[in-house]
Amino acid sequence: MTGALAGWLQILALVAALALSYRPLGDHLAHTLTTARHLRAERLVYRLGGVDGDADQGWPAYLRGVLAFSAVSVLFLYGFLRLQNHLLLSLGRQPMPADQAFNTAASFATNTNWQSYSGESTLGHLVQMAGLAVQNFVSAAVGIAVVAALIRGFTRERTDQVGNFWVDLTRIVVRVLLPIAFVFAIVLVAGGVIQNFHGVESIRTVVGGHQNLIGGPVASQEAIKELGTNGGGFYNANSAHPFENPNPFTNWLEIYLLLVISFSLPRTFGRMVGDHRQGYAIVTVMAVIWAASVAVVTVNELHSVSSRAGHAAGGMLEGKEQRFGIWASALFAAPTTLTSTGAVNSAHDSYTPFGGGMTIFNMMLGEIAPGGTGSGLYGILILAIIAVFVAGLMVGRTPEYLGKKLGAREMKFASLYILTTPAIVLVGAGLAMALPGQRAAMLNHGPHGFSEVLYAFTSAANNNGSAFAGLGANTAWYNTALGLVMLLGRYLPMVFVLALAGSLARQQPVPVTAGTLPTHRPQFVGLLTGVVLIVVGLTYFPALSLGPLAEGLQ
Amino acid sequence: MPGPLPRTVRHHLSALRMLLVFTAVTGILYPLAVTGVAQLALPDQADGSRIERHGRTVGSSLIGQRVGPDPKWFRPRPSAGGYDPLASGASNLGPNNPDLVKAVEQRRAAVAGYDKVAPEDVPVDAVTASGSGLDPHISPTYAYQQVGRVAKARGLKPATVRRLVAEHVQGRVLGFLGEKRVNVVELNAALAGDALSRRVRGGGGSGRARPRAAPRG
């Protein structure tokens, strides 16, 4: 079989697996978020946690729950990292410095998983599994909870109630994330991912040299790292590391896992609003952008476009593993940056200018194709609201989406959502470039160095977490700045989404008339795709032209 | 007697209690359960697909090893971290970084001289560092290119070494996932002699027969 045919089959098998999961997983999520029945285990969690599982909350109370839970998560994890030397299984590792611990705590609580540390040389096993991996579960669940509240804004009428945050959080962990992660963790072990509590072990190698092997509970963390679109690697090399991703099958599985929830959530949306066609329209937009992105990255890497090093070597294999090659590396790089996962199975910094530039662009889209768990769907629903509004302006009538009027208040929240992330990215990157000390953190010079800085702020603000890893980001300045960017990039948009949810839930639905824009037809799919590209393109074009575009056209 | 706590404090205490419950379930019970099943059902994989000799671990078949200048071993790809599992990672040099271009050219010249082949025939994996710095694999082309040198250094017939390489070529998983490859650690372990006993894993799913005993000169 030729490489190209194998590459295509790899992509088609992935698409088929995701398509087969769309209905069952989407329906399961919808049932989880709407059923009135609590499981016994869930009642136990509510009792132990001291929360009321039966009272619905208005949007301010729901938001207070999100923020309180996230705040204690950051503080708890910060303490954990600072005190890890006193705990079991610390492997003799020292406490993490204050600025790095803040960065890491903010990073994992916000589902970003930016890592300015190197796992194998910094962290003990206990803090990885009971500190970081816990956030992998709950931060993913928080994202889904927030989009559930937004969907209820569309489905409920004349009420203040958008759901119960503690119930949503608990059910998503208990009924969705835990069982799926458990099954796939075992499958990953069968594929060769390690799962033990060994420390560092000095061995004499085959040829008589020395090597330090290191163990860890990796598979349990790997499964939820992908499934929850978290992306923080157990080891520094992340999913390029053979203990995290030992062969092409585990690689394919990890790509599937990091996409499957976000690609199935439109089904949940369609089911909850009572019209599956609405879900199909949204997932089509996601899929079109996803496919185009995979194509751009793959083509550029295959042909070493605009890369002198690639032409000198005879291919773009610098920073890529032999067992994956170009196709399976590009097929990982595009989805991981389109989903807010940020796990990497190859070094994006060494990608071609346009291939690597595409991974930055993917994040700039706002993580919506299909995006992070939950955050991807609420991101694209905000853009759908913008699209309906734009269409409304064209014909001069008040826009409505799924029977809810989009008035001044709703559009204010949607606009604030759209403006928040770019403002954080561009101010942050601009600041870093203006300060000589921070500029010096670039490994590469010229436009590529700027791309490293732009990548870092784009990744942090969009809660992706991958990096052009040449940037020496473990400094007090970058740890603090990027930590703040991650917090603002996660929670400000959530405030606007929940406020919007409350505002929609209060409305009485308007009847569909001849003038209503249908939001399930190809016309709307095209309109929404266009809005996504224009909004992002206009916002970021100047920054992109200074980085990847300048480098590629040199 | 102190009065009831302010609402904000109660709210955050409740959030903390929920976090502690999730920590117990997803941070302790879940990884322990996975470890239990993995260690019972799949102990070889769970422990890192070790290669053992005389009861001593000489490596993991998943983690590449440094080989040094000795011509009698197959060489792995260049590594940004010197095949140290405590320093995994890539070079992160950009696609037009002059240092990377220079490094590639130097590697090409060095490999060509070492394996006595034309510089333009040196395959791409021999001149590029991997993403993990621990890549245990090389392309079949690079493995076959090293046969002559290894055979000569060991006083073996090239055909014997070539056959050993052929036995170690792994195809794409299920015929279409990933790339063809040769595991250098396993290949060198096989070369190290038939005293070498293996206690290892499936892992790749490539369905390839593994040589139990390696030919010896």
From TrEMBL, chain A:
It is found in: Cell membrane. The system is composed of three essential subunits: KdpA, KdpB and KdpC. The chain crosses the membrane at residues 61-81, 129-151, 172-194, 249-267, 279-299, 376-395, 416-435, 481-504, 524-543. The keyword Zinc does not apply. GO terms for cellular component: plasma membrane. This is Potassium-transporting ATPase potassium-binding subunit. It is a multi-pass membrane protein. The keyword Metal-binding does not apply. It comes from Streptomyces bingchenggensis (strain BCW-1). Part of the high-affinity ATP-driven potassium transport (or Kdp) system, which catalyzes the hydrolysis of ATP coupled with the electrogenic transport of potassium into the cytoplasm. This subunit binds the extracellular potassium ions and delivers the ions to the membrane domain of KdpB through an intramembrane tunnel. Belongs to the KdpA family.
